[in-house]
């Protein structure tokens, strides 16, 4: 009993192998995709005793599948089975027939998914009876699926023109979809540069409707001053370069639009010869105007007599410093940009305000500046400090000189009578408030008129200066020394009682006599001392 069964199995395997070889031969002999799919469907149905069979192809998981060839299916049924399942490459029998096939009487399906040149493909066969497909039949289905994938690839590669045309059609559809929805002006030109296509965005950019530009050249709408540059770029495009150029378009309403256009030459996919020129153009009018405004503002800032800088409070960095500010602080052009604002010293940056500050330059010299600080919000950097520094060093020196002239006597540099009276009043007020003593010494030089008359006023001036220098050397820094006029001097001794005032007066008298004895001073000075009184008493005057 075993031998007949064994012989039957061997015979079936022989028949299956023969059938497989026959179908593979037919598949490999097919010269086009439709012919190949029809051969596969017919031969598989016959080999597997199936009533229906079909080949589906798709270019991606999201693309709708199309029946490339079928046996036993009507057009509506082909559309229904196009919704088939594409899983991992291999054979499956666990898929229930769709309603369109159950109505036809199909009860079991066998599927084989495989890779195709365009994406994925599926072989499917269905039987009217419920007998499942055995392993040998599924192996045959798998083998034919693999052979079909290879044959499809061969057909695809040998049919170069067909593949190119399909790719071109697909590319054209994608191009149109992108162009019609792009905010950029997408255009196509013949090899001489004339428009053959303009996307809808061309109207908002140039002011011309797409149909108004068909057959025209971009030079027809370019600004006259930009035409030479455009033609020079066009020659580079003809040489095979991809270039980006900026030029002005003259709008029909009389306005101008700045545009930036990226242009390239496209070859014919079959012959390789130049076929057309494609361009993507965008409106940069706002950008150009902003750049012009920035250049104008930068040129104004660069030529200002004031120093200007932008400081970012978040990290304390200087984002911009104009040349004037860099010169003020002793830096080269651009050297301050990106540095910490601390190099500028103690500027009034904590809040928007103005005031006078003293800065120290890189070389160590001092400058007086008027600082004006304001804040504003920047779209990229956030809150910024705008600091404007005006050099007021000369003014401060002049003011200091004026103040010195108002308060000091020009010959000796000592306080004058007006300033002495202010200091005396202030010291009397402190003495009354705190109950502390104070004293005033009045000094004059005997025979000073004789010196002037006999030796001349220059000698008298030298005598006055020498007395002033002696008083500065002998008295404390806290003492107030003044020349009241002529040969009269006065001294305020804060926190000095009567006894201390007497000692100071005697010491000054001796010092003056010693100078006179050495020939440095002429005349014999005399000192008088008065003690500053409490609020309820009058001063007591004493002479030494």
Largest sheet: 5 strands, antiparallel
What would you call the structural class? alpha+beta
Share of helical residues: 40-55%
Total beta strands: 20
Q: What general form does the structure show?
A: elongated
First and last CA, distance: 162 Å
Bin the strand percentage.
Answer: 25-35%
Over all CA atoms, what is the radius of gyration?
53 Å
Note the total helix count: 16
For the largest sheet, list the strands in their spatial order: 2-1-5-4-3
Mean pLDDT: 80
Low-confidence stretches: 160-169, 522-544
Report on this structure.
The chain is an alpha+beta fold. The chain is 42% helix and 27% strand. It has helices at residues 2-29, 33-47, 75-81, 99-102, 135-158, 160-181, 201-206, 210-213, 227-238, 285-303, 323-329, 393-407, 417-434, 448-455, 457-474, 498-517, and strands at 52-58, 66-71, 90-92, 108-116, 119-127, 185-189, 195-198, 243-250, 256-267, 274-283, 307-312, 317-321, 354-360, 366-378, 382-391, 438-445, 480-485, 488-494, 525-531, 540-543. It is elongated. The N and C termini lie far apart (162 Å).
């Amino acid at each position: 009993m075993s031998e007949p069964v064994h012989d039957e199995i061997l015979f079936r395997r022989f028949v299956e192998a023969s059938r497989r070889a026959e179908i593979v031969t037919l598949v490999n002999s097919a010269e086009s995709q439709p012919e190949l799919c029809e051969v596969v469907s017919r031969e598989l149905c016959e080999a597997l005793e199936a009533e229906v069979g079909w080949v589906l192809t798709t270019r991606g998981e999201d693309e709708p599948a199309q029946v490339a060839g079928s046996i036993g299916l009507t057009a509506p049924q082909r559309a229904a089975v196009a919704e088939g399942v594409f899983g991992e490459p291999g054979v499956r029998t666990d898929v229930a027939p769709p309603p369109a096939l159950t109505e036809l009487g199909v009860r079991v399906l066998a599927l084989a998914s495989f890779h195709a040149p365009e994406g994925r493909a599926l072989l499917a066969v269905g039987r009217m009876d419920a007998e499942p497909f055995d392993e040998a039949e599924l192996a045959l289905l798998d083998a034919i699926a693999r052979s079909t994938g290879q044959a499809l690839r061969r057909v695809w590669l040998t049919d170069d023109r067909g593949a190119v045309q399909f790719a071109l059609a697909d590319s054209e559809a994608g191009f149109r979809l992108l162009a019609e929805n792009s905010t950029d002006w997408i255009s196509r030109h013949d090899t001489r540069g004339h428009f053959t296509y303009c996307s809808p965005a061309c109207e908002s950019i140039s002011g011309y409707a797409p149909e108004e530009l068909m057959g025209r050249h971009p030079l027809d709408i370019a600004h006259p001053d930009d035409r030479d540059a455009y033609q020079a770029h066009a020659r580079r495009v003809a040489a095979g370069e991809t270039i980006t150029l900026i030029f002005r378009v003259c709008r029909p309403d009389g306005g101008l639009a700045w545009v930036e256009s990226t242009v390239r030459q496209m070859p014919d996919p079959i012959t390789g010869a130049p076929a057309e020129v494609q361009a993507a153009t965008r409106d940069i009018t706002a950008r150009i105007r902003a750049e012009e405004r920035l250049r104008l503002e930068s040129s104004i800032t660069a030529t200002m007599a004031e120093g200007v800088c932008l400081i970012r409070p978040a990290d304390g960095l200087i984002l911009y410093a104009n040349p004037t500010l860099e010169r003020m602080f002793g830096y080269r052009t651009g050297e301050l940009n990106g540095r910490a604002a601390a190099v500028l010293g103690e500027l009034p940056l904590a809040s928007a305000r103005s005031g006078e500050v003293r800065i120290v330059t890189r070389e160590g010299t001092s400058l007086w500046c008027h600082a004006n600080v304001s804040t504003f919000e920047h779209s990229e950097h956030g809150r910024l400090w705008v600091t404007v520094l005006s050099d007021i060093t000369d003014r401060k020196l002049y003011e200091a000189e004026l103040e010195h002239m108002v308060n000091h006597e020009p010959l000796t540099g000592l306080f004058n009578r007006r300033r002495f009276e202010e200091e005396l009043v202030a010291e009397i007020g402190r003495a009354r408030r705190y109950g502390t003593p104070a004293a005033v010494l009045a000094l004059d030089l005997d025979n000073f008129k004789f010196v002037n008359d006999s030796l001349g006023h220059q000698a008298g001036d030298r005598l006055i200066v020498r007395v002033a220098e002696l008083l500065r050397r002998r008295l404390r820094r806290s003492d107030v020394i003044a020349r009241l006029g002529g040969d009269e001097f006065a001294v305020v001794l804060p926190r000095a009682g009567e006894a201390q005032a007497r000692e100071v007066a005697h010491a000054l008298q001796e010092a003056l006599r010693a100078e006179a004895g050495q020939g440095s001073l002429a005349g014999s000075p005399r000192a008088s001392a008065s003690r500053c009184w409490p609020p309820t008493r009058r001063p007591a005057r004493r002479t030494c």
